[in-house]
Amino acid sequence: MQDDTKEWNPGRADFWVQFYDDEDGHLREKEQQHKKSRELAEGGSLMDHYEWFMEYPLYEKKLLAFLPQVPTARTTEKPMRWLHVGCGNSDFCDQVEGLLSDQLSVSASPPAEVLNVDICENIITHLARRFPWRLYAVGNCCDLHVTARSASLSQERPAGEEPWFVLDNTLHVQMVRQSAVDVVFDKGTADALLSAFAGEFNPNMEAYVGEMLKVLRPGGAMFVISINSEEVVNPYFLSAQDGDKSFQLVFTDVVELGAGGLRHLRVETLGSRYSCYGYTVVLPAD
């Protein structure tokens, strides 16, 4: 992700630092403007929960339609490993357990480990204190320090099981293991990266897609919710390579927001129409 002083847009790290600033960031300003709102009174601070594009119920059916096409989702004995990139302060991670156990009959307990990663240290620090049962990490989605080996890094795990990620004591990502993740979830992160080089080839987007392909195992998948068209997004995914691994587009659908979906105080919308793309990680055919 960009981090220079030439422009101010969602493709820059400092945009998000300001957005989540605890004193005078966008969310705090929005709270002040709507401090008498029933939604704030009932749901709590926007710093604790805020969504891009839409709340979970509006895209749940799309995700459910896609996941049966994901080979690793059919293996139910072990918890699935999910990576939520550009998580912000979404509560998506709290929905995954119900999605897998109730809808897809995953029997593992817990059914998933969801690592929530964002480049913005201030919001990750806040959320990790506020919700200590969730897994949060500070990391750049274009460079997660992917490695094929982690023997030199220590983290408590059951004997014989290698950790799939390692964090330092400030929650910064030290390593994500190559080919260890089952599902990557992206709601707006690709769009933020694409905004930095509108209409041009985007090196950040290329790096991001390549990094996600590295962390995903063969048979894994990436689910993307985006305001961008297939013609914009697809070239980055379909040209990515990691050894023998590549992405294949297997699912597309659209979410159309009604008037109610556009008026939520707790949601940042950028229009009423969003595309859902599902990519699986494939190997060359024998």
TrEMBL record:
Domain Methyltransferase type: 163-223
Signal peptide region: none
SUPFAM superfamilies linked: S-adenosyl-L-methionine-dependent methyltransferases
GO MF annotation terms: S-adenosylmethionine-dependent methyltransferase activity
Pfam families: Methyltransf_11
GO biological process entries: methylation
InterPro entries found in the cross-reference section: Lys/N-term_MeTrsfase_sf, Methyltransf_11, SAM-dependent_MTases_sf
Entry keyword Methyltransferase: yes
Keywords: Methyltransferase, Transferase
Family: Belongs to the methyltransferase superfamily.
Name the UniProt record assigns to this protein: Methyltransferase type 11 domain-containing protein
Organism: Leptomonas pyrrhocoris
Origin organism lineage: Eukaryota, Discoba, Euglenozoa, Kinetoplastea, Metakinetoplastina
